[in-house]
Design brief:
- The structure holds 2 protein chains of 2 kinds.
- Chain A has 11 helices and 1 strand.
- The longest helix of chain A has 32 residues, at 123-154.
- Chain A has helices at 2-31, 41-51, 62-80, 99-119, 123-154, 159-168, 176-192, 205-209, 217-242, 252-276, 282-306; one strand at 55-57.
- The mean pLDDT of chain A is 86.
- The radius of gyration of chain A is 19 Å and the shape is globular.
- Chain A is an all-alpha fold.
- Chain B is mainly alpha-helical.
- Chain B folds into 4 domains: 1-183 and 233-243; 259-532, no CATH class; 561-590, no CATH class; 596-645.
- Chain B has 22 helices and 5 strands.
- In chain B, strand 4 and strand 5 form a beta hairpin.
- The chains are: A mainly alpha, B mainly alpha.
- At the A-B interface, helix 1, helix 2, strand 1, helix 3 and helix 4 of A face helix 13, helix 14, helix 15, helix 18 and strand 3 of B.
- Strand 1 (55-57) of chain A pairs parallel with strand 3 (538-540) of chain B.
Chain lengths: 308, 646
């Protein structure tokens, strides 16, 4: 039964994700005084990609061929690790839904992204692969510092367990370190969604797309979905740890719907940063902006160590 | 167990005796080693719960006792199992060194090296331990010299120098411990009656002595120097198991001391530094073997993070943390032995086929060596600790231990365990970058220097079988995490006082795999129902913004890490040289990265020693009568000293 709900959770996210993207594209267009595409545009894009033929670079090997599937698997498994339709009492899946499983599945996503980028032998894909790694180098520790506060505070790495503690109020915003950590964590998760100012395109469209520039047809469609799913997952990661209110409802389907609405809200709200965000070069951008997030997360860790 | 030791000794002697027929000796030596070590692995594994004793027959100056308890059995198993895979690999690989060295000597040294490691683990006496420890160091140094290149002598001296500094610390610590205990047998050392300060001093000496051999920070400088120099099968043994022998000795001796919480803190701090610096250097080096070598420092750091939790648990009387810490540490020791020896052997495959260690010259090797490439991919995933492979299983346990340890009230434990988790996560992020770079630069894309892979072809089946075996273990040890933890629990319970605790709340690896498989079905269903375009893929040149594609446009291993190097410029010094001959000629860029700690820590010491050696050189002028004079002066001084003070 758990598995069926898990499947529903995953499939519904895949179905809804392009809509969020469509809405945010429409909203961005409104900001820029354009009419913009229809909110279903992302669906149309994916359907169109499925019908297109494919080319590949002569240098590619098996890594390039399986990369879309591996990216999808890691993103989808990450999403499954979010305890939305299942809770702390569900016996089997609690052994899966773990903070480090989620983080390292994210690392798997990154690894595949980098090797696929190098495999294409495309100069832009190579640079974007390098940047993917560099962004990980900057964001990972901030995310983990925030999570340390939560994990050591609750004494567990299990996501359903942490969610249930925050839901019942045994652990939560009454504790200053937790409240401060939540700000930095949301910041990092926004960075992980890879939108401005963290897309780091530096005026080259090819850099922003990176490895995606080489993919086409159905491969590209799958990667597109995988990336949308990953963006939803990282925002959902924040919700599950710091605002797990959707789980208060007992019915799994209702809480799934509530969760999707929350994630969609966060996703679309991201446009406000995305649209007005400046463009940085990678060194300046990451160093300057991540330093603030790092400072916030360190503050919360220091508070935790002091026992507040 | 004596049979195994005797067999190794015999094989070593026989292959040395056949030095006039190196090819035959090589077959006997490596073939024998693989058979004996297979037998040994089975033997040690089936006797994991037992304690065995063996006294050296005959009358020597002392009568060394050899003793294997549960922990010793586990490490002996580890040594012999990895030795099995490596010697099977060497059977074919060693031929590559036919012209460089006498293969009979190579085979003989190889056997003797395995024997010395097994004996170090078993020895139960200070003197036999120190003697065998030095023999092990010497044999490994000779193995490095098999690959006799220019500058090999200097490299071996650096290795031996650091090993000697460590050995002297170790010697001092052991003699102090022996004098307090009043005996030289380790098994009677228990309950040393010493204060906290003394205990911490002895612990630090042990850490310096054995950690330097294990390649911990700041002694990591010898790792790339030694491992890049020696043949890959020897570096697989050294990195895979020799540093584990050092860790074994460290665990064994530190457990004999009265436990203090500070032990845990020291280990956590050193572990955090080791893994961060190790991975930084692994990330920025352009030589794939150096990258793998530096990552040994990283992994030793990770092991120390687990052991730090364990010693913290022992110091604070919390058996659960101690149990989990030791299990995590041993699990990572096991995993590191498997994937590190695998990576070194793979690097041997790459080197024999391409003759280069420079990642900026390689590329596209997958098309020539597909099986090596796939095995390398598995090894890289596993060293990056990606689920569901073995590295992830042990790192997860280390995280879990740290989280439980950091729950306790009190600033210092929270601080050190947070440090451990942060260090491990930064290491994780950088390991991803380092090994995706190594894999990508060697196997994927287009060859940057097409000459390098021109003659490359897949290596023989004999060499691939042991690699495939280890790669399948990388998967197996991850998938059957619960069984491995169960086995390690039994071993750990023999070394910690409490016996009624267990590990609970593990993640389930089979479940992770099941969910990943479930997820892998979705895209196919999706593609099928939406009737995707399945036409054949057209092949074209990579996109180059409309310019004509050139293989030099690819990202190189240097530029791949450019942004990280810029961010870490306070730690990594590099010199950039640009040679420009004329306006129309090609510019040549060279970039050299320096090890910060080599410049600041080692070079001044070496310079000082060289200077002192120069100064005292005047005493050695070659005249025999002057030397006799020295002896006379010395004797007089001793007499005077004895007359007044004794």
């Amino acid at each position: 039964m758990d598995f069926i709900y898990l499947l529903i959770q995953l499939v519904s996210a895949i179905i809804v994700a392009p809509l969020f993207d469509g809405i945010s594209r429409k909203l961005r267009a409104k900001f820029q005084s354009r009419i913009g595409p229809s909110i279903f545009q992302t669906y149309y894009d994916i359907f169109k990609l499925l019908k297109r033929g494919r080319t590949k670079s002569s240098s590619t090997s098996y890594v390039y061929q399986i990369a879309p599937y591996l990216l999808f698997i890691s993103a989808a498994a990450m999403f499954c690790a979010l305890p939305i339709t299942y809770g702390a009492n569900s016996s089997a899946l609690t052994h899966f839904s773990d903070i480090f499983v989620l983080l390292y599945l994210g690392a798997l996503f990154r690894f595949i992204f980098i090797v696929a980028g190098i495999d294409t032998a495309n100069p832009y894909a190579g640079i974007s692969a390098s940047r993917e790694g560099t962004i990980g180098f900057y964001t990972e520790e901030v995310a983990v510092i925030c999570l340390i506060v939560v994990m050591m505070g609750t004494g567990s790495t299990s996501l359903p367990f942490i969610s249930s503690l925050v839901q019942t109020g045994e652990y939560g915003y009454a504790i200053p370190s937790f409240a401060i950590a939540s700000t930095a964590f949301l910041w990092v998760m926004y960075v992980e969604t890879g939108r401005k100012p963290y897309d780091l395109a530096e005026a080259e469209q090819e850099l922003q797309e990176g490895v995606l520039g080489e993919f086409c047809g159905k491969d590209f469609a799958i990667i597109d979905i995988a990336i949308l799913l990953k963006q939803i997952t990282v925002l959902g990661f924040f919700l599950v740890v710091f605002m797990p209110w959707a789980g208060l409802v007992d019915n799994p389907i209702v809480s799934l719907v509530l969760f999707l609405v929350e994630v969609g809200f966060l996703y679309v709200m991201g446009v406000f940063i995305d649209n007005f965000g400046p463009r940085f070069t990678i060194n300046k951008g990451m160093k300057r902006t991540m330093l603030f997030a790092l400072a916030i997360s360190c503050t919360s860790l220091v508070l935790y160590i002091m026992g507040i | 167990m004596q049979t195994i030791y005797t067999l190794f000794l015999l094989t070593s002697l026989v292959s040395l005796a056949l030095y006039k027929k190196p090819l035959l000796a090589q077959k006997i030596g490596f073939g024998g080693a693989s058979l004996i070590s297979l037998y040994a692995a089975v033997f040690f594994f089936s006797n994991l719960d037992e304690t065995m004793l063996w006294k050296l027959p005959g009358s020597f100056i002392s009568l060394p006792l050899f003793r294997l308890d549960s922990l010793g059995m586990f490490f002996s198993f580890l040594v012999s199992f990895i030795a099995f895979a490596v010697s099977l690999f060497s059977f074919d690989y060693a031929k590559f060194y036919e012209k460089k060295a006498n293969l009979a000597v190579f085979a003989s040294l190889f056997n003797a090296f395995i024997l010395s490691m097994l004996l170090v683990i078993a020895s139960d006496n200070v003197f036999s331990f120190m003697l065998l420890w030095e023999v092990m160091t010497l044999l490994s140094a000779l193995l490095i010299l098999i690959n006799d290149e220019e500058g090999a002598g200097k490299r071996v001296m650096i290795y031996l120098g650091i090993a000697q500094v460590g050995a002297s610390c170790l010697m001092v610590a052991l003699i102090i411990m022996a004098s307090i205990a009043g005996t030289f047998e380790f098994s009677q050392f228990e309950h040393l009656n010493i204060g906290t300060g003394m205990s911490i001093t002895l612990f630090s000496l042990l850490l310096l002595g054995l950690g330097s051999k294990a390649g911990m920070f700041p002694f990591h400088v010898w790792l790339p120097i030694a491992y890049c120099q020696c043949p890959s099968n020897a570096s697989a043994l050294m990195s895979g198991v020799m540093i584990k022998v050092a860790l074994f000795a460290f665990i064994k001796f530190s457990l004999l001391l009265p436990q203090v919480v500070t032990f845990g803190y020291i280990l956590l701090a050193i572990g955090a530094l080791s893994c961060i610096f190790g991975i930084i250097y692994a990330l920025i080096s352009n030589d794939y073997k150096a990258s793998i070598a530096y990552s040994s420092c990283e992994n030793v750091g990770i092991i120390f993070l687990g052991l730090g939790g364990a010693f913290y648990g022992l110091g604070t009387d919390s058996p659960t943390i101690a149990l989990m810490g030791f299990i995590a540490g041993f699990y990572h020791i096991l995993n590191h032995a498997v994937f590190k020896s695998l990576l070194f052997m793979l690097s041997g495959n790459i080197f024999t086929e391409t003759q280069t260690r420079d990642m900026d010259a390689l590329g596209g090797l997958h098309k020539k060596m597909p099986i090596t490439s796939v095995i390398f991919f598995v090894a890289a995933l596993s060293i990056c600790a990606l689920p569901p492979l073995n590295g992830f299983a042990s790192e997860w346990l280390i995280y879990k231990t740290s989280v439980i340890g950091g729950m306790a009230e009190g600033g210092s434990s929270r601080f050190f365990f947070s440090l451990a988790v942060i260090a491990l996560s930064i290491t994780g992020a950088m390991a991803i970058m380092a090994f995706s770079k190594v894999y990508g630069a060697i196997f994927l894309g287009v060859a940057r220097d097409s000459k390098s892979i021109e003659n490359a072809k897949e290596v023989s089946v004999g060499r691939l079988i042991p690699l495939a075996l280890l790669a399948s273990l990388c998967v197996g040890f991850g998938l059957f995490m619960n069984d491995v933890v169960g086995m390690l629990t039994k071993i750990v319970l023999t070394i910690i006082p409490q016996t009624s605790v267990g590990v609970a709340g593990l993640i389930s690896m089979p479940l992770i795999v099941a969910i990943m498989l479930l997820c892998s079905l979705l895209p196919f269903v999706f593609l099928y129902f939406l009737k995707a375009n399945n036409k054949e893929v057209r092949v074209s040149d990579p996109w180059a913004c409309g310019f004509l594609y050139n293989k030099n446009m690819q990202i190189g291993s240097n530029s791949f890490t450019g942004d990280v190097r810029k961010a870490l410029s306070f730690l990594i010094k590099h010199e950039q040289e640009i040679k420009l001959d004329g306006y129309f000629s090609k510019a040549v860029y060279t970039k050299k990265t320096h090890d910060f700690f080599w410049e600041k820590l080692y070079k001044p010491v070496i310079d000082l020693v060289m200077q002192i050696a120069e100064e005292i050189g005047i005493f050695q002028n070659g005249r025999t009568n002057l030397y006799a004079g020295y002896i006379l002066i010395y004797l007089c001084l001793i007499l005077i000293f004895g007359y007044y003070y004794l």
